[in-house]
Design a protein that fits this description.
β4 and β5 form a beta hairpin. 51% of the residues lie in helices and 14% in strands. α1 packs antiparallel against α2 and α5 packs antiparallel against α8. The strands form three sheets. Strands 2-3-4-5 form a four-stranded antiparallel β-sheet. A two-stranded antiparallel sheet has the order 1-8. The chain contains nine helices and eight strands. The N terminus is likely disordered. The protein is of the alpha+beta class and 286 residues long.
Length: 286
């Protein structure tokens, strides 16, 4: 999420070192607030999920109803085994999901205590953490979106061109990333098309879906705006979509962090803290 305003200087010999102002102050502030919010939203969300670690499609969901995903524990030959079930697929997850810890420290719970807030099972406290950081995240995201539209950031930096979304160009970008060949020189000034598409999907699809499904799970919001239940086909479907979107964003974050590390950890971190990003350009590339 960057603003690519140019600010450069050159060295007299060898590759030209150019410093650009890659991220605006507003982008940097909203980015780090997002990091805090997303971390605590995930941890408090898993605490809420643990209160009933199963997901359903439709209006209703209870212990006797068939779920499409569940995390639980089963007793086998005097031992307790953690199980993640997705449809008909069952995966033993003892020590992580369903049953945390081992030996005398083993405990039956969906997600382990080290990844939830609070660490002990407390649905009410988990909800308070989740709602507080959800609204902080919404406010912060709204400020980022407003600045993005007014400054032309979305149109200038994130909207892909027709050539960029051609199958040939997309295939080349995927191949370059698979080989860890990252843009250098002048190309490093701009987002590549995979970055653009990833950011657009997160900003304009996943996050709005998270917000809308979050509202749909609220009984008070359903009473005031009953069309939300019709829109998503029920509160349990909204909960499932909320869960899927959350883990899609977690996957995006993991890939994002991996790309930051592989393409230059210090340079990327400095640009997100100070705004200054260094690119090296071979003289033949200018």
């Amino acid at each position: 999420m960057a603003t690519l305003d140019d600010h450069s200087q050159a060295t007299p010999a060898g590759p030209m070192t150019t410093i650009i102002r890659r991220h605006s102050l507003a982008t940097r502030i909203t980015h780090w607030i997002n990091v805090l919010c997303l971390s605590l939203l995930l941890m408090s969300g898993l605490q809420i999920f643990n209160a009933h670690p199963a997901l359903y499609w439709g209006q209703y969901g209870a212990n006797a109803d068939p779920s499409w995903l569940s995390i639980g524990a089963v007793d086998e030959d005097g031992a307790t085994r953690g199980v993640l079930r997705i449809g008909k697929l069952q995966i033993t997850t003892t020590g992580l999901l369903g049953v945390s810890g081992t030996g005398d420290d083993a405990a039956e719970r969906g997600f382990p205590s080290w990844i939830t807030i609070p660490s002990y099972q407390d649905l009410a406290t988990g909800r308070r953490w989740h709602l507080f950081f959800a609204w902080l995240f919404v406010i912060n995201g709204s400020i980022y979106a407003l600045i993005g539209f007014l400054s032309g950031h979305f149109r200038r930096d994130l909207a892909p061109s027709g050539e960029e979304i051609s199958p040939r160009h997309l295939g080349q970008e995927i191949a370059d990333h698979a080989r860890l060949r990252f843009p250098k020189g002048e190309k490093a000034r701009r987002y590549n098309v995979l970055q653009k598409l990833a950011y657009l999907i997160v900003i304009f699809i996943l996050l709005p879906l998270m917000f809308a499904t979050g509202l749909t799970m609220s009984p008070a919001m359903d009473a005031g705006y009953p069309f939300l239940l019709d829109l998503f086909g029920g509160r349990q479907t909204a909960r499932s979509i909320h869960f899927i979107c959350a883990w899609s964003i977690v996957l995006f974050v993991f890939v994002h962090i991996a790309m930051v590390i592989l393409s230059g950890l210090w340079n990327n971190m400095r640009s997100m803290i100070t705004g200054r990003y260094v690119i090296e350009t071979e003289r033949d590339d200018r």
